[in-house]
Amino acid sequence: MSERENIFGRIREALKAQAPLPGLHAHASTQTTASAPRQWLPKVSGSFDEQLALFTKNAAGLKADFQLFNSAEEMRQAIIRLRDAAGWRRVAGHSGDLTNAICPVLNLPLLRTDKAYDVHELEACDAGISECDALIAQTGSVLVTNRSAGGRALSVLPPHHVVLARREQLVADLPAAFELLQRKYADNYPSMMSFITGPSRTGDIERILVLGAHGPKRLTIFLLAE
Amino acid sequence: MSTFATQFLKQARVMAGDLRHRRTIRTALGNYEIARDKGQASFQNWQSARQLASETKWEAINHLDKYLEQFVSKIEARGTKVHWASTGEQAREIILQIVRDKQSRSIIKSKAMTAEEIHLNAALEQAGLNVVENDLGEFIVQLRHETPYHIVFPSMHLTRGEISELFQRELGSAPTNDPEELTMIARRVLRKKFLTADIGITGANFAIAETGMVSITENEGNARLTAALPKTMITLIGIEKVLPKLADLALFLPMLATMGTGQALTCYNTMYGGPRQPGESDGPEEWHVVLLDNHRTELLADAEQRDALHCIRCGACLNVCPIFRNVGGHTYGTTYSGPIGSVVTPHLRGLQDWKHLSNASTLCGACTETCPVKIDLHHHLLQNRRNAAKGKPVFFERLAYKLFGFVANRPALWVLAKKLGRCGQPLQNLVKGTALDPARAWTQTRDLPPLAGESFKDWWRKRK
């Protein structure tokens, strides 16, 4: 017999005995027929402006840099300011409507990661510029997949990750983000999907927050509101 | 007493008296508590969220065969190779075989408690292979040749000074007391490893049956890099990690973060559904998922304690446990410490050898109250005590209870015993804590409350 069959055999044998129902040892008033997480998770209001305000607040708390623009031109100006302030010499990105509209103005060597690339070249880039699948107001997160955001490494290897997003990509909460993934990818999910919540961090030394543990030290989120 | 019990008692005595250690832990956990409470308060109803989480895990664990089959068929359909290991030894053998086949020269590994459980690093090193932990805390304890102190915060027992000394000694870095500078030293060292490693090993927090994915939660980005750069990826995961649906993560990710570290969401929560797919530009060419039983099916067979398999390894029960906070993580001598470790270790490694952990509890129930998936932890400790006594009765305990039962059932004897106790206690006080004291084990470190001068019965009679 294979180990697979052995393990399934033991599981089926074990499950012949009925386990007590969950949570019954706890206080009776907590018994609920809680079916959907949305009603218990942190509350998110309905309107776009409220969600935007919540995202802004959460991003600030996470030490992410969030900026809102009314036109693509404003966004282009902002990324040039970012380039000059940080002294970028080379950047990485991928092909997409927003990235294609924004990246060329940088006038810098651009490594494309949506085709086969050399990882050492990506490591040498000062910033990775990507699109995303959604922004989540509830948590201040950016949802990326390797299909929408230039592969697995672009959003995590360079020291600065810049996310370009559009107004309609802002969703209220985590359940909405999963609904979006299901709707968008159905039975053909990308092989990597990641909720990025602020720049990379660690608290492993005396529980003191340090940014840029292994991933980017800086996370910049540009939202085009037009 | 088993040697493990002797070792535990010896170590516990040392640690409980180590004020510096207690101060370090109290500071670290004080900040955690504030963040955790704030996180819980942001939920519309934390208690209902716990109930839903517990019902979801109950559904998954009590239909484990169905969900595992679904998980495996979905994940295999995307080109992932699934392996089955009944024991830790089998899991080590499977991983060693993959590593040998690939003629690996350099392995990086992101934090995985299952790998600690099966002593994977030791096995790889014994086979002459080079494996480097890339979670900062794990990297630190690996350099110290220690096991993780805590399942979420592996290096929480160390001060920045100790870490600086360690880095000077092992990495040749300049002395510094700045946590940021220390983190950057590790980042530079590990970045080189990331770029050259040919195999990446990870654990996983959840396995999604519906879509055939694993979900990995982390803060540093080290697991993201481990799953992006090396050509071959190996994920070691316990069979109990399944969740039925992808959308279940909408509940479990924020709950894990709230209880684990006090964050609303951990920095990176990533779902992997396969190795690099056609048309994708990076990621591993091969992905091996090793499913580990290692006595989990035995715990599954214990219907009474089956909910211990609901555990999402958030570490919340360790953080609130008065025993853990005083004796520290290493004292347990187990992979999983604190209340959950005391519950599951007897199942994983033998009840009689590890029954002393069931007594490493004040039965205050703080663990049960904090557990986000409502594991009945402190009652399971009692059940383990019961099972241990049933399996291998202790003569003196049985004698003592028989005697107590005999006396308590005879009112005249009971009154006499109380009188004797009242007379005897002042005498006992003279020898309190010394070798002559029959209650020495208790009185050495504790006071025995004085018996009341008058019994309730006498007082009641006089009142009339």
What number of structural domains do the residues of chain B give?
A: 3
> CATH topology of the largest domain in chain B, which one?
Rossmann fold
Helix content of chain A: 25-40%
- Overall pLDDT confidence of chain B: 95
Q: Can you name the CATH architecture of chain A?
A: 3-Layer(aba) Sandwich
General description of the model:
The complex is a heterodimer of chains A (226) and B (464). Helices cover 28% and strands 21% of the residues of chain A. Chain A is of the alpha/beta class. In chain A, β5 (134-136) and β6 (141-145) form a beta hairpin. Chain A is globular. By secondary structure, chain B is α/β, with parallel strands linked by helices. Chain B has three domains: 43-294, NagB/RpiA/CoA transferase-like (Rossmann fold), CATH 3.40.50; 297-391, Alpha-helical ferredoxin (Fumarate Reductase Iron-sulfur Protein, Chain B, domain 2, Orthogonal Bundle); 408-463, no CATH class. In chain B, strands 1-10-7-4-2-3 form a six-stranded parallel beta sheet, sandwiched between helices. In chain B, strands 8-5-6-9 form a four-stranded mixed beta sheet. In chain B, β5 (206-208) and β6 form a beta hairpin. In chain B, α9 (160-171) crosses α10. In chain B, 50% of the residues are buried. Classes of the chains: A alpha/beta (226), B alpha/beta (464). Chains A and B meet through α1, α5, α6, β9 and β10 of A and α2, α3, α4, α8 and α10 of B. β9 of chain A pairs antiparallel with β9 of chain B, so a sheet runs across the interface.
